Amino acid sequence: MQALADIECILQLTKAIEQAVAVGEWERASQLAIARSPLIMSLSAQQPPATLSALRQIHAIDAQITEAARNATTELNSEYQAAMQATCQARTYQQVSLL
Q1: Which residue among 3, 28, 29, 94 is least enclosed by CB atoms within 10 Å?
Q2: How many folded domains does the chain comprise?
Q3: Of 66, 58, 60, nearest in space to 7 by CA
Q4: Is pTM, for the whole model, over 0.85?
């Protein structure tokens, strides 16, 4: 019975992570994932059929979160590169304007 309660808790934490990711709260998502990790690690390999459906749902949500994280990383890297380029251009303008 404890395993079923753990699965339900893992599912609720996974849904909370999904919500945090949806609004871009990556720090909160990370905190929730850290809280969820020991529960996942405590699961045994053999699970009753009733929990397998929840585990598949958790896995599917995790796949979506992973894709969102990949997309966010790509976007943030692009923004960082653009900001660095703008900084270099501003520095070049400042140097030229002093001549």
Answers
A1: 94
A2: 1
A3: 58
A4: no
